[in-house]
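[job 0412] stage=complex_fold ligand=adenosine-5'-triphosphate status=START
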Amino acid sequence: MPASLPRSLSGIQPTAESFHFGNYFGALRQWVRLQDDHDAFYFLADLHALTVQPDPAALRDRVHASAAQLLAAGIDPERSALFCQSHVAEHTQLAWVFNCLTGFGEAGRMTQFKDKSASTGADKASVGLFTYPILQAADILLYHPQHVPVGEDQRQHLELSRNLAQRFNHHYGETFPLPEPYIVKGTARIFDLQDPTAKMSKSASSPSGIIDLLDEPGRAAKKIRSAVTDSGDEIRFDPEGKPGISNLLTIYSAISGDDVDAVVREFEGRQYGHLKVALGDLVAEFVGGFGERTRVYLDDRAELDRVLARGAERAREAAAPVVADVYARIGLVPDARGPLARGSGA
Ligand code: ATP
Ligand code: MG
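[job 0412] stage=complex_fold status=DONE, emitting structure tokens
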């Protein structure tokens, strides 16, 4: 990969057996495109997934399933570093440094913690969930990326990363370039089919509100046909007034590649049911192909592990010197045994 390409970095949590349409159209599809003109690092955020205390066997399965889905989506491990966050110890090493630079009140203002802890109550949520955006800042800043492709839901976290980079640079000298959010053209925000005012989410949506990339095609089509729609009968794009229909139009546009206006024109004068049936067919075809490709990768888990190991090797080469530099700047005495002893090359 020529060194002149801008670097990009993004991660996704292996918190479910399958990624969903929001992940795909809000993130993964752009990850694939970015490979053409970026030196890209993509990781499975398995440490972030621990914040909700997953069952160990389920987590292992989800990591493999996630890797297989990223390959099926078109992530090319020859061009991009694809790795597990837990395989590169520098993520947690830098996270601790940032934990010590983040104010308690500052962390408390992150809205995702409020959202995610709402169901259990903040007292029952883990401290890991609370400090999650700080680990995320480490994930990002470790690689000095120019571009961080994220969905709209992650804007606030990226802002924290920028603040921490600035704070570190201010105290210890210019170390971290400020990462830019990179909302790529064609990025869509997808909403829950049963509650189109909430985003489609692996952990928060009910099964009928979410289209999984690994859904059985007939089931996926049925979910579209059973999606909540709005009062009235006119098909038009109006996210405020018609969140349900607008979400279906967004999904239609994302799969077909036609812009939303063209989709609206196509269905002008027709009923909600027509749109649902047509979209159900599109979705079924899409998940059918995606599922087949994923199963091929999942059939060879040893190869998946090899792909992740190669990715971790590349990631470590980039990350180890950054942590060494940070440790030196903040006044930690260098380990006389050399960088290998810190776990960065072990
Ligand atoms: P969780 O509920 O476990 O947080 P998630 O569904 O929010 O899962 P993440 O792994 O947190 O998924 O996010 C992966 C990527 O998918 C991020 O870049 C995020 O912005 C994007 N993303 C998640 N949900 C949506 C959505 N509904 N629409 C668009 N993009 C989304
Ligand atoms: Mg999320």
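Residues 219 and 284 are 8 Å apart (CA to CA).
[job 0412] exit 0
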